[in-house]
Amino acid sequence: MKAKEKMDHFLSVVGEMFPDAHCELHHRNPFELTIAVLLSAQCTDETVNKVTADLFQKYQTPADYLAVPLDELEHDIRRIGLFRNKALFIQKLCRMLLEDYGGEIPQQHEELTKLPGVGRKTANVVVSNAFGVPAIAVDTHVERVSKRLGFAKADDSVLEVEKKLMKLVPRALWTETHHRLIFFGRYHCKAQNPNCPVCPMVDECKEGKQRMKPALNRKAK
Length: 221
Hints:
CATH topology: Endonuclease III, domain 1
Number of domains: 1
Strand content: under 5%
Number of strands: 0
CATH architecture: Orthogonal Bundle
Mean pLDDT: 94
């Protein structure tokens, strides 16, 4: 099956499996989403949501984050991995927002990536979820699923994975595909113990077929 045909099949399958896939980071506006995505690096959305439940009550504007000492902000996000670096990035980001953007999150991707702690993935999440601009953000789940199913090569960089997905998926479907890839990787094609025995894509997955060989061999005996 060619890559485009495989992707069309996958989009159909994952659409049925996760029709309501969405951003699971809790937020009320573009600013909170940006902070939440920054905090989510090397951390689960579940943990981030627990932290931001209180954080977003205490800090509601960029000025709020700059009104406290750095060590206080560190303490407020201490349950997040790399909390010291992230606290520093948050304050630097808020300072830049106030100095260069009138305290508002910029809507342009290239401007977003100028903000401290905001890389391409974070910018893609923000423009797509906060501003409705089609984008595919490649996190660990998207990267894993893309490589397991052969949409990208094992040694492809994150940017290369993103570019290949953009070619295979119609632009209008980029954002929903991003969410469905995440759900597929987070709840089905997991890093450890993926659900290969009940996976509708297992025949298109080299790793999945390898995992299934022992079970098939036992049945054949």
